[in-house]
């Protein structure tokens, strides 16, 4: 186990992107539901995977006992002995997986995360990645956000501070994982919902996510203007690129082309939904007629006579006499 603590001799370049596999998301959701559901607590665990050039491929994970005082952020506990034992057990199963970082259910960065990151540096071959996996059911968009700790100098003459830097994160799956995910989604998807309604719901969710991102940009810019946050040139460059990529909607030809194309697409989707509904209704009626005639044939073969359509009813006068 002494080699495990000295694995930092092998250095890899800083990752430029983190790829999270579906198995990790399922594991984190199960960990949260078992430990911290309906509470204010969060869960912390270990991320296992491999380095592909400068990318980190997160393929597996496991939970770690973690406790922190919600009232006093300086008080926290992570069982690193359990971490080391579990890692060597996973190493026996898959020797290619190494410890690449840690996860948290967040949903935001907390004060202790930098201290946890410093602890994980003992066990990683390179700077550990920190992935926040938001397990809340109402989250719109990708539930993963990746960070990496870097040294930053705010101004000349000041001390170097350690902060988290955001790095790109995506969710990817191999062919076997895609089959498993599709199998799980069979029990989640509602077969009675049409594809048109599903596409509209997906667009609504996408627009809700876009509104949330625009709100974050607005809040950041307001804080910069008020002097509460320093100007980050990289963020300013990215915002300028976003504005430059926006189409010029003042051109009438472009607006008309977008409207015509959108209307044509929606017309095809609407007609497809109508045709599918009519075919489904026709199939239901044909099935009812088929099995109704079959029931009559079976009853006739069994010698059962059909009940008369008009049954004798007692007259109101007879009821009055009785």
Explain what the structure shows.
It is a single chain. By secondary structure, this protein is α/β, with parallel strands linked by helices. The protein contains 9 helices and 10 strands. The strands form 2 sheets. The protein has an 8-stranded mixed sheet with strand order 9-8-7-6-2-3-1-10. Strands 4-5 form a two-stranded antiparallel sheet. It is extended and about 100 Å long. 15% of the residues are buried. The N terminus is likely disordered.
Kindly summarize this structure in a few lines.
The chain has 322 residues and is α/β, with parallel strands linked by helices. It has helices at 2-5, 22-35, 80-93, 113-120, 175-185, 195-226, 233-245, 252-301, 316-321, and strands spanning 17-20, 44-52, 55-63, 66-68, 76-78, 98-104, 129-133, 144-153, 160-167, 169-171.
